[in-house]
Amino acid sequence: MKAHNISSGNELADQLAKEAACDGELDIAYNKHPKSAVISELKELGLQKWQSEWDSSNKEALTKKNCSPKVKDRLAKRLQMCLNLSTVITGHGKFRGYLHRFKIIDPMRPCEMNPQTTDHLIRECTLLRKQRQRLKKSIMKAGGNWPKSNTELANTYKNIFHKFVNSINLETL
Prior knowledge:
Strand content: under 5%
Shape: elongated
Oligomer: single chain
Largest sheet: none
């Protein structure tokens, strides 16, 4: 039996296939994209828009100082956010310096050095001397030196910094 039987339409199919293959002018009849490709493209467009808004915003200066300047890098960190970490990174929350902006509380802390800010707690507060020493020691053990920028603490030494932040009891400071 012949492989291409005229009565089955195989010859016509072969002829049409050859014409289509040779004719670059024909419209594409099938141009669907895989769902995964569409999702990837939309995610990338979303990240680009988010990055653009992040870069052009004049708000959240402390958060920008404490986080990676690239949204994509920050998302890749998969940092588990907790109340203390969020408070330290954004400078919003139970900080006396933040609450003082709203005339709720005096900004000075029991250590009486400076107003309570993120930088004060990380680098100066005498009440956190022990926690800061553990932070420094852990960073040095990991091959770093002290002091580190807030961005480096939140990104390069995120687990060590997270442990430090969780050791702070903001209620008693």
